[in-house]
Design brief:
This protein is an alpha/beta fold. It contains seven helices and six strands. Strands 1, 2, 3, 4, 5 and 6 form a six-stranded parallel beta sheet that branches. Strand 1, helix 1 and strand 2 form a beta-alpha-beta unit. The chain is globular, with a radius of gyration of 21 Å. The two termini are 35 Å apart.
Amino acid sequence: MADDLPNTAIDALQVPAAELLRPDRPSRHPPRILLLYGSLRQRSYSRLLTLEAERLLHHFGAETRVFDPQGLPLPDGTAADHPKVQELRELSLWSEGQVWTSPERHGAMSAVLKAQIDWIPLAIGAVRPTQGRTLAVMQVSGGSQSFNAVNQLRVLGRWMRMLTIPNQSSVAKAYDEFDERGRMKPSSYYDRMVDVMEELVKFTLLTRDVVPYLTDRYSERKEAAATLEDRVKFKAI
């Protein structure tokens, strides 16, 4: 079989095994979910939708944290040791899944949400704060239903090496969907948001214990083997 794959490093090539996707000791703690929203307005509909999602996540047995973006500096506007930046990065490391909710601004996600994601690096040393974590994406719109923001969030989720779940939520005319107390009214939009949170918890439970295996890649194993070989050769000189 090795002769059929002349361009591969056979020692780094592994056949996926179903048994490795079944953890011997599944985690018993509640799924840990971080929720980010993308507006600083006093009556922020992305925040209100986020808080509704958090209530459902609690019902589904999850432990949650909602990050308040107020006071977060612009990316590269200060050093990474800024307290709000450190808080955000620590929450991302703590999480096993995340929810990103953005208003649609000029046909795109908001700068407030993008800034939060931009402050989370792909890697901090050998640790990747988002890799392998599940992700649910939602948006609110001031007009008719649109999917521009959630589509962009999906691209970002892939870039951050996250497992973005299939379902998503887009709430049109958000100003009509919340009452004076800030609670979401019964509607098909609400039902879809329930679907999304339910699916997020399921996917988080399914994947959280096997993230190291899911994110173990041939190219990285090959690179690590080559580095080790070079180091051994150097010591032999």
